[in-house]
Design brief:
The chain is an alpha+beta fold. 40% of the residues lie in helices and 28% in strands. It has a five-stranded mixed beta sheet, sandwiched between helices. Helix 2 runs parallel beside helix 3 and helix 4 crosses helix 10.
C-alpha cells in the first residue's frame, strides 16, 4: 500500500498537518517552551500552549514564526520534526512525500533549512509550496489550466495574494497584516475610545461575536469586561458591531489596497479571467464576517470565501505532490 502524502502548513499561530490517506490529522499551536537551565525544549504545540501561563523563571515561550516569517530556524526545525513524527506514527513502512507550505518571501537559506529538517525527519521527497498555491488547491481551484485565478490567503500573521495560472504564480504580494492585527486593532480601539484594557483572548472573542468588515443592516451588541486604563479598576462597556467595523477598518483597508495593487499588475487577459471567475478568499482571517462583501464592494469583482477556509492551505499542501505529478 503506498504511503500517504503529508502536507504541513506552518502558521504563525497554528500548524496544521494533512494526510491524503487520513485527512486532517494534527492541528496544534506553533509554539514551544524552552528550558534555559537545561538548554533544551520542554514542550511543543498544545502542551506548550497549556504551560504558557504557568511558567517558572527558567522557562520561556518561543513562537518561531512571526507575521508569517520564520524568525528562529533552530526551534522551527525541532517543532517541524515533532509534527512530522506525530503525523507518520511509529509504524510507517514507507517514507512519505512531504510538502511544506512556506511564505512567498522566504529566503534561499530558509528554504534549505526547511528541506534539510524535513528529510532528516523521514521524508522520501520534499516539496516547498508557496501559500497562495496551496490555498488555491485546497479551495478546489484548478490552477493547472491556462486561466487566471486570484487567491487571497488571510492568515494570522500575514496576508498573501497571488494570480495563478498553469500551476505558477504570475503576480503576487504579501503584507504583514492579518488576523493578529484584527485583534490588536480591537485592543487599541477599546483603549483609546473606552479607556478599557483587554487581552488578546477577549479581543478574539469580540471579533468572532460582533466583528465585521462591512456595514450591516442590524447592529449587534456585546458586553465586555476589562480594566479601566485610568483607575485600574474593573469596568464593563457595551460594544456594537459598527464600532468594531470602525476599529478594523485600518487592517481591512490595507488588505483591500494590496488586492487593488495585484489587480493593477495583472496582465489584461488574466484580469478578464478573474472578472469571470471571481476572487477566492482562504485562511482564518478571511472568516471575518463581511470580508468577502467588502472586497467585492471595493474591487467590483465577485468574491467568495472557500468552504474550508481555515484548513484550505493545509489540505492544498497535502495534495500538492499529486497535482504536480498530474501536470508532469
Amino acid at each position: 500500500m503506498p504511503a500517504s502524502d503529508i502536507g504541513i502548513d506552518l502558521g504563525t499561530r497554528n500548524s496544521l498537518v494533512y494526510s491524503t490517506g487520513k485527512g486532517m490529522i494534527l492541528q496544534e499551536p506553533s509554539v514551544v517552551v524552552y528550558d534555559r537551565s537545561a538548554g533544551r525544549i520542554r514542550a511543543i504545540g498544545e502542551e506548550a500552549r497549556s504551560m504558557a501561563d504557568h511558567l517558572s523563571s527558567n522557562l520561556e515561550v518561543n513562537w518561531p514564526i512571526r507575521q508569517g516569517v520564520i524568525v528562529d530556524y533552530i526551534v522551527m526545525e525541532k517543532m517541524l520534526k515533532y509534527f512530522i513524527s506525530r503525523a507518520m506514527g511509529r509504524h510507517a513502512f514507507r517514507k512519505p512525500r512531504i510538502s511544506i507550505c512556506v511564505p512567498a518571501t522566504i529566503t534561499q537559506i530558509g528554504r534549505k533549512a526547511i528541506e534539510e529538517a524535513t528529510y532528516q525527519a523521514g521524508a522520501r521527497k520534499v516539496f516547498l509550496v508557496e501559500a497562495p498555491i496551496a490555498a488555491a488547491i485546497g479551495a478546489g481551484v484548478d490552477i493547472t489550466r491556462p486561466f487566471g485565478n486570484l487567491v487571497v490567503d488571510i492568515g494570522a500573521g500575514s496576508t498573501d495574494a497571488a494570480v495563478l495560472s498553469m500551476t505558477g504564480v504570475v503576480v503576487s504580494h504579501s503584507i504583514k497584516v492579518a488576523g493578529e492585527d484584527f485583534n490588536e486593532a480591537i485592543i487599541s480601539y477599546l483603549r483609546k475610545n473606552h479607556s478599557l484594557f483587554i487581552g488578546d483572548d477577549l479581543a478574539e472573542k469580540i471579533k468572532l461575536q460582533i466583528g465585521t468588515a462591512c456595514e450591516e443592516g442590524s447592529i449587534r451588541m456585546m458586553e465586555v469586561k476589562g480594566r479601566n486604563v485610568i483607575t485600574g479598576l474593573p469596568r464593563i462597556v457595551t460594544l456594537t458591531s459598527e464600532e468594531i467595523r470602525q476599529a478594523l477598518s485600518g487592517p481591512t483597508g490595507q488588505i483591500i489596497e494590496m488586492v487593488h495593487g495585484i489587480l493593477e499588475k495583472t496582465p489584461p487577459e488574466l484580469a478578464a479571467d478573474i472578472v469571470d471567475r471571481g476572487i477566492v478568499l482562504t485562511g482564518g482571517g478571511s472568516m471575518l464576517r463581511g470580508m468577502d462583501q467588502l472586497l467585492e464592494q471595493k474591487t467590483g469583482v465577485s468574491t467568495m470565501t472557500a468552504q474550508d477556509a481555515l484548513q484550505a492551505t493545509a489540505i492544498g499542501t497535502g495534495k500538492y505532490a499529486d497535482v504536480i505529478s498530474m501536470r508532469a
